[in-house]
Amino acid sequence: MNTLLEYFWLLLGCLLTWIWVDALANKRWAHLFTDIPNSRSSHTKTTPRGAGFAFAISVLSASLLTKTYIFISICAFLLAVVGLFDDIYSIKAKWRFATQFGIAAAATAQIFPGLEQALPAHISLCILTLLVMLSSINFYNFADGINGHAAIQFMITLISWLLISNSRDTWVLNFNNSIFLTLLGSLIYFLYANLKLKSVFMGDSGSTFLGFLSATFPFAMLSEGADLHCYLLCLLSVLIFSYVIFLDCASIVVIKISIGVSPSHPHRNHLYQRLSRQPGWNHTLVSIILGLVQALLSFSYIASIFIAMEFFYVTIIIGLFYSAVVIRNSLQTRKVFQLEAI
Predict the structure, then answer these.
(1) In a domain? residue 235
(2) Tens digits of per-residue pLDDT, 110-157?
(3) What is the C-alpha to C-alpha distance for residues 237 and 302, in angstroms, rounded to an integer?
(4) pLDDT at residue 40 tops 60
(5) What's the pTM?
(6) Which of 33, 116, 270, 330 is a plausible cystine mate for 50, CB 3.0–4.6 Å?
(7) Dihedral, CA of residue 184, residue 189, residue 194 and residue 197, to nearest 10
(8) What is the pLDDT of residues 201-253, one digit of tens each?
(9) Is residue 67, in this structure, part of any structural domain at all?
């Protein structure tokens, strides 16, 4: 892609996000998006949420301009719309999940056409992919509890797929840099407004959108001739590229279910939340540290695919270390939930 054109897509994402973030401050509707702190909040002053809807605007705009991934982009946009309504009106969890399931199922059907003639292994992969999509949507939503965390994690994921797509021996053949550069530009401006200016929050509209894309676009990018091995490799990559968020959130969900607590029960016991409350730590520092952990996991994994398999040992070592930290936090969280139940 022409370098000048790459800058155009980056600037388009920045511009659309700036326009949306500025619109959130408009006095006529600013009260609709105001997030008022409560006992579970990690912030102390009222701040507009819903800035993440700019991600959906940016991706859909780039998709329509390039006429690529239109169906998946529309699905993601609809999910962001539901998230935006949730930011404003607080939709009940069962209706949120029903909508998420319907959109994820539609995206899965688009990615895996002709299931009526598919082998059992392909049907199993389809079901597993749907579960990963739903998990990713909700885990990114759970991860949006401090400034910058979910956005930085997704930015690492986005860069990882950009690296894979531009490799000479890539197994992802239908990658469109335009959409992802636009989204990258949107993320860059959002992080500036969120971390530097501290003027907006992402909201459910952005977190669920990023979670959906994280687990959906990689499969949509595979060529039509991709075999089962490619799909399995893609699924493994999706999990590794979101390992920091997935493990933290999945471990808490397992703990909740094991002691009879609803998975949607609000709390402040995720690893990133506990770290942000440590003396001398803040949201930005925690988000950067966890971003570096994810970057080391992702980039060492990519190196193991395209450079030397030995790099995968680095992925395993970092993954085991992070897993140990998460498990320790989960055990502490279990005690907290048990005490609350007494």
Answers:
(1) yes
(2) 887 655 455 566 778 888 889 999 999 999 999 988 889 999 999 999
(3) 9
(4) no
(5) 0.90
(6) 33
(7) 160
(8) 888 999 999 999 999 988 887 766 667 777 888 889 999 999 999 999 999 99
(9) yes
Q: In which domain, by residue range, is 137 found? A: 3-241
Please report, as a single letter, which amino acid is at residue 222.
Answer: L
Q: Residue 278: what residue type?
A: Q
**Alpha carbons 277 and 279: distance in angstroms, whole number:** 6
Residue whose tokens read 């388009």:
12
Position 320 in a domain: no
**Could you give the number of structural domains in the chain?**
1
Q: pLDDT digit string (tens) for 148-191?
A: 999 999 999 999 988 887 665 555 556 678 898 999 999 999 99
